[in-house]
Design brief:
- Residues 1-24 are annotated as: Disordered.
- This is Phosphodiester glycosidase domain-containing protein.
- Pfam families: NAGPA.
- Residues 22-178 form the Phosphodiester glycosidase domain.
- It comes from Butyricicoccus porcorum.
- This protein has 181 residues and is mainly beta.
- The protein has a domain at 6-17 and 76-179.
- It is built from one helix and 14 strands.
- The protein has one helix spanning 125-134, and strands at residues 6-11, 31-33, 36-39, 47-52, 57-60, 67-73, 76-79, 82-83, 96-102, 107-112, 137-142, 151-153, 156-157, 175-179.
- The strands form four sheets. The protein has a five-stranded antiparallel β-sheet with strand order 8-7-11-9-10, covered by helices on one side. The chain has a four-stranded antiparallel β-sheet with strand order 13-12-1-14, with no helix packed on it.
- β12 (151-153) and β13 form a beta hairpin.
- The two termini are 16 Å apart.
Length: 181
Amino acid sequence: MSQHQCRARHQCERFSDPEGTGNGGDVFGMVVSGGRTVIDTLDTKMKVIGMDSGNRLNISSTLPRGTRDAMQFSPALIVNGKQLISGSSGWGLQPRSVIGQTKDGQMLLTVIDGRQPGYSIGITLGDLTDILYQYGAYQACNLDGGSSAVMYYRGRNITRSSAVTPDKGRHIPNAWIVDAN
């Protein structure tokens, strides 16, 4: 976080993390940053979550032309205003991280803590989809949740990680970052 002058950071991509103690270095799926393809392996089981130069969020099966930043995860929750998930969809109650956007371009970065009885047990994807829809999400996709579900704001973690080492969190390979500008 210190290398970026930013207001918020939001974990996103799935990665190899044996026993919850990995270094976050093995990303699965495509990564594009600043218009440059960092990892070009398209995982056909995952959605491409991309942002163009006009800061419009796109969720699709391929990398759209003109994408500035992108990564992959699943499932898509809302695409073009249509809710795609209901109930738990077999995913159960978990900590969640989601990126979304309203039709007028407002970003919806959402983290729900979980796996902490007495504080938060998490949320189903269906309930989270319903909440995002109520807030006007036109696009929304699930990101890496579980112990990766963290959000930083102004240099401070504002969530409670369920990581093996909650005081240290866990190493992550990438994140959506909201710049102060």
